[in-house]
Design a protein that fits this description.
- This protein is mainly alpha-helical.
- Among the domains are: 77 residues, no CATH class; 34 residues, no CATH class.
- It is built from five helices and six strands.
- It has a two-stranded antiparallel ribbon with strand order 1-2. A two-stranded antiparallel ribbon has the order 3-4. The chain has a two-stranded antiparallel ribbon with strand order 5-6.
- The longest helix is centred in the middle third of the chain and has 23 residues.
């Protein structure tokens, strides 16, 4: 099929292929052939670890929440959900773009975890339903070191107090 382009040039366009309908016998034959190919590929691969997966991720047992199989299943589920938001974005549904980008970021965080072994997302779970509980793994934290959370607030008797009140109590010897 030949059509005219913008500047008058001829552009050849391929004809769409017709879909081939297979009989049940042909379908069974194709499935059998694919099964043999998968078995052969699995035999060639042996017990090698998947490429691009951090060893600490593979070491986790299947019962662990962040095991390789769980996270791969979460990625697959979220990619399906992500595809369902694209038409909603085109229809300009309020909040659809935000949810789409949130899910896209979560998928990226999970893929980062599989590559590096470091969980960087603030959420875990199939639908981001659990908050991540962060903990320090560096050992002893210097008391004089300040960070965002300890710069302005301190705890006295399980109550949050301002930095000035904390320093006064420390000077008076109440701590």
């Amino acid at each position: 099929m030949v059509i005219k382009g913008l500047k008058g040039q001829n552009i050849k366009r391929k004809k769409p292929r017709k879909k081939v309908e297979l009989t049940p016998a042909q379908q069974a034959e194709v499935e059998e052939r694919m099964k043999k190919m998968r078995e052969k590929r699995k035999a060639n691969r042996g017990n090698k670890a998947p490429v691009g997966v951090h060893p600490t991720v593979l070491e986790k047992p299947d019962t662990d929440q962040l095991s390789y199989d769980n996270v791969k299943e979460w990625i697959k589920y979220n990619k399906e959900i992500l595809a369902s938001y694209r038409p909603l974005i085109r229809q300009k549904v309020p909040g659809a773009l935000m949810k789409h980008e949130s899910i896209r970021g979560y998928i990226g965080d999970m893929e980062h975890y599989i590559r590096t072994g470091d969980w960087i997302s603030n959420f875990t779970g199939r639908e981001m339903q659990n908050r991540t509980r962060w903990r320090s793994i560096t050992g002893h934290i210097d008391i004089g070191e300040e960070d965002y959370f300890t710069r302005n607030k301190r705890m006295i008797d399980n109550k949050v107090v301002e930095l000035e009140d904390y320093q006064e109590a420390k000077q008076e010897g109440k701590l």
